[in-house]
Amino acid sequence: MITDENMCISLVNSAFETVTGYSLDEVRGKTPRILQSGKQNASFYKKMWDDIESTGIWRGEIWNKRKNGEVYPELLSIASIVNSSGETTNYFGVFSDISSEKVVEKEIEELTNTDYLTNIPNRYSFYDSLNDLINLSKQNHDKHGILFIDLDRFKQINETLGNEVGDSLLIEVANRIQSLVKQKHLFARYGGDEFLLALNNILYQKEAAKLAREITKKLNKPFYIEGNEIYITSSIGISIFPQDGIDAEKLIHKADKAMYFAKQNGRNQYAFYFDELKRDSKRLLLLEAELRKAIQQKEFSIHYQPKISIEKQEIIGVEALVRWTSDKLGTVSPGEFIPYAEETGLIIPLSEVILEKVCMDIIEWRMKGISDIPVSINIAALHFQQDDFIERINTIVMQYNCSPQQLELELTERTVMKDSESIVKKLIKLKHMGFKISIDDFGTGYSSLSYLNRFPLNYLKIDSSFVKQITALKDKQAIVDCIILMAHRLHIKVVAEGVETKDQVKLLKEMDCDIIQGYYFSKPIPSTELLDFVELWEIHKQERNIL
User: What are the residue boundaries of the GGDEF domain, all occurrences included (predicted)?
Assistant: First the structure.
């Protein structure tokens, strides 16, 4: 619609009439207030008009009302039109009805926040709720206890009595634990036979210990499932906020380590994190020393996992994955040294060493006649948040005479949501420089349409936890289908990672997924083997059918 300088409507198009139900004759001379739903308050509109007056444009989501009274969401852009004297003569508004996108977003939110089996919150919902609780607690100086609960020898029961009995047992375990949990506490299924519990605002550590004993006692009673009398025990690890960590990830990680200590010391008991910390203190000291030395001497290697276009059946890129073998520690899992590097801040120099090695490999590929393989690199939150992040990575890329167009930066959902305004600017600048941008592990964090629409993204990577079960579980299929639909409406390509079977490939193709990555095609391989893989793929391209 177009209005005059007083916001009186002068012109609308047929799409306006279709969406709102009003004809041009009904709205001409009236202001857009005729569409207001009442869902936005005065401060919302004040900020909107402040933005328009200062920048000449506003864009965002808003709820409006049709002629029949139905309230609907729309994506709206308003721009002011000025004459040669700089005076506003008109306002120009463009909007689209995003009701269907909101339905998809709501479905994804519901599916991604609830455990499909036990119908309690899942790990992703737990992470977000715990972080929200922690943010409030930093002001109130509250103390919380996090319990990581693992069932002992559950795998043996599953294999002996079957998955259906195992699933029924997990439901009953969840019910028993939930019967002991107060409403103010957070309870979730972490995955498999593991559960998480956050005790909100405890006064003493012994409160966490008391509940751990109650859970152990409750689970020691027999379960009766499909004619089977089943006995099971649990091992419980406990961490305490704030002494063991000030964010959900660290607290859960430390409770997990304490759980393993309890399991190794006989099972059917609980342990606090500090017991495990004492046991591991020597390895942690050695790990830090060796990691610092490895970074200085650039002792890491890079493996690459191919990404395949479903439609063209071509290699359209690779993901770079770091590997490390220490003289004193042997082969160290990325699952051990990456979190420790993040915790100590060593992730910044480590990431730059990885980027250097990737650039060196790209140069080597170019010398051997292969110059068109884009490489995606995982970017840690701490590294990305540095003020000079763009300058530092650009310096490395230019130093090795590499092109930003050949690099894709993978960020997690939680990284881009920390400070969205400054992150939008940073991402836009990176994209203008030629870097491609993707969101990694999509579906495990916020999964919000509103931020996807704002960020200049090239790709979404669906987390492997969804892909792994899409052929067996309808809810996982629904999540993946919704993500692909939503991304495509925003002109974002979708990558499914963790693809391991032909059936998964077939289903992803039916869902119109763009790119697949996983062990079905190749494990992560060294640079030299990658060149052989690419060559063989091209040789057999005509006869290959990935389905």
Answer: 142-275
Q: Which CATH number goes with the domain that contains 27?
A: 3.30.450.20
Under a CB-based contact definition with an 8 Å cutoff, are residues 489 and 264 in contact? no
Please give the residue range of the domain that contains residue 24.
2-97
Residues 182, 129 share a domain: yes
Whether residues 251 and 157 share a domain: the answer is: yes
Residue 205 has what pLDDT?
82
Sign of the CA dihedral with 289 first, then 290, 293, and 294 last = negative
Q: Note whether 252 and 382 are same-domain residues.
A: no
C-alpha 484/C-alpha 134 separation (Å) is 33
Name the domain count of the chain: 3
Same domain, 274 and 396: no
Domain boundary among 249, 281, 313: 281
Helix (H, G, I), strand (E, B) or coil at 444: coil
- Contact partners, residue 511, CB within 8 Å, separation at least 6: 477, 480, 481, 484
Alpha carbon distance 222, 236 (integer Å) = 19
pLDDT tens for each residue of 38-54:
999 888 999 999 989 88
Is the pTM value of this prediction over 0.70?
Answer: no
Cα 497 to Cα 495: distance, rounded to the nearest angstrom:
6
Average pLDDT score over residue span 205-229: 92
Per residue in 386-432, pLDDT (tens digit) is 989 999 999 999 999 999 999 999 998 777 765 567 888 899 999 99
Give whole-number Cα distances, 372 to 145, 250, 512, 517, in Å: 51, 39, 24, 18
Q: List phi, psi (to 5°) of 36.
A: -60, 140
